[in-house]
Design a protein that fits this description.
Layout lengths: L2 H31 L3 H32 L5 H10 L13 H10 L3 E3 H12 L5 H4 L1 E2 L2 E5 H16 L10 E3 L2 H13 L2
Antiparallel strand pairs: 1-4, 2-3
Length: about 190
């Protein structure tokens, strides 16, 4: 990974943090509308922690640019800023949860990432936008939707829907993931 790719990785990470903040804001609004003030209070605290985390990432990004600023070409930085996707144009991570779980069930509960992504594409191809199909600026050989699906997988591991101790490159559903998909199928026949 070169210096430019590290800068782009910071940009992607900050974009993802912003998406989480936006989702958290919606959860706070929902809790307040439902008069669940305890939940709203907890979510606001998480929001404060997330804001502090975002500041740390911004500081690290700035430190990286200070250390390697002379080596990063201005032309590349300008191109990166122009190529950043506006919020709301790509399919959000949460839309990948059910397709990933469904793909894993079709594949016997566990499969290499590429196999899972192939089935996810089959399931979601009618929902993916033109922006989802565009290549990532940091990796022109990877469409944006695959990157979003990989971020979704990370969130699913943290939620316990996918196993965290699977061999590298293998995605594996947990019992909690199976219950989640069963519950979704019952609620959305």
């Amino acid at each position: 990974m070169n210096q430019n790719e590290v800068s782009e990785a910071f940009d992607i990470l900050l974009e993802e943090i912003e998406a989480v903040i936006e989702s958290l804001n919606q959860e706070v609004e929902k809790a307040l509308r439902g008069r669940d003030y305890e939940k709203a209070k907890d979510l606001i605290e998480k929001g404060s922690q997330l804001k502090a985390f975002r500041e740390k990432v911004n500081d690290l990004r700035q430190e990286w640019q200070n250390v390697f600023g002379g080596r990063i070409k201005k032309k590349v930085q300008t191109k990166r800023i122009k190529s950043r996707l506006k919020r709301g144009l790509r399919t959000p991570q949460d839309k990948f949860v059910i397709p990933i779980l469904s793909a894993l069930i079709r594949l016997g509960g566990s499969a290499p990432m590429k196999g899972v992504l192939d089935v996810v594409f089959e399931i979601m191809k009618s929902e993916l936008t033109e922006y989802d199909m565009q290549p990532l600026p940091s990796n022109p050989s990877q469409p944006r939707w695959q990157n979003t699906a990989q971020w979704a997988r990370l969130s699913m591991v943290k939620q316990g829907l996918l196993k965290s101790d699977s061999p590298r490159g293998i995605w594996e559903i947990t019992e909690k993931g199976r219950r989640y998909i069963d519950s979704d199928e019952k609620n959305n026949p």
